[in-house]
Structure formats: C-alpha cells, structure tokens
Specification:
alpha+beta; Thiol Ester Dehydrase, Chain A; 4 helices; 35% strand
C-alpha cells in the first residue's frame, strides 16, 4: 500500500449503538431497541449513520497523523450497519487542491462487501 492509500477495519460490537447513543444523545429506538429494529425490517438495531461516518473520518485522521487536519467530509449513507458487522474503510488520495488541501476518496463496506457509505470524501489540510 502506498503512502497515498490506507485501510482500517472496525467491528460493530453489540454495545456500540448504546455507547454512541450515550455520547451523542441520539436515543432513537431503531438504534437501541431490538424489537423496533426488527419491526423496521432490519433484523434488530442498526448503528447510527454518524457513528459510521465518524469511523471513516477517524481512519483518515490516523492516516494523516493529526485529527486537527480534517477540514471537511461528505458521504451518502447507502446501507444499514447492523450489530456484529465488520466494516472496512479504504482510502485513496484523489486530489491535491489548489489551496494546499488534499481530498481522499473513501470506500466503506461491510463483511459482505456491501457499500455502507458511498461517494465519500474527506478533505485534509495544514493545522
């Protein structure tokens, strides 16, 4: 893997949605109540989309070595993330911008190679 590429994995443990709900204040029952997730057709609770996005940004932050370098991010949530899923984040430097920032394209898939985030980018720059 070149210096312009990186990858990270995250396991969605059975408590992740509860931990994230506590940290974010988002206690929507679809994330923490198995019966609501079941009734919604997901087979149980699903992870908060912003937790998945935060893991994506964290992967870039680790690659560039300083979370203060993160300038912006974009993503489209394309599939639910279920408790027990294993997520893979792969990033590639897409563009060096005129203002000195760099934009990374990110692929985020679950263990079945299903995209959970699409059209994802994170832009980094000097602190």
């Amino acid at each position: 893997m070149s210096k312009d590429e990186f990858s990270e994995e995250q396991k969605v443990d059975r408590y992740r949605a509860v931990f994230y709900a506590g940290a974010s204040g988002d206690f929507n029952p679809i994330h923490i109540d198995p019966s609501v997730g079941e009734k919604a057709g997901f087979g149980g609770p699903i992870l908060h989309g912003l937790c998945t996005a935060a893991w994506m940004v964290d992967a870039v932050s680790r690659h560039v070595g300083d979370p203060r370098k993160i300038k912006s991010m974009r993503t489209r949530f394309s599939a639910p993330v279920r408790l027990g899923d294993r997520l893979s984040f792969k990033g590639t430097l897409q563009q060096e911008n005129e203002d000195g920032t760099q934009t990374y394209g990110i692929e985020a898939v679950n263990q079945d190679d299903e995209a959970v985030l699409k059209r994802s980018t994170v832009t980094v720059g000097d602190v």
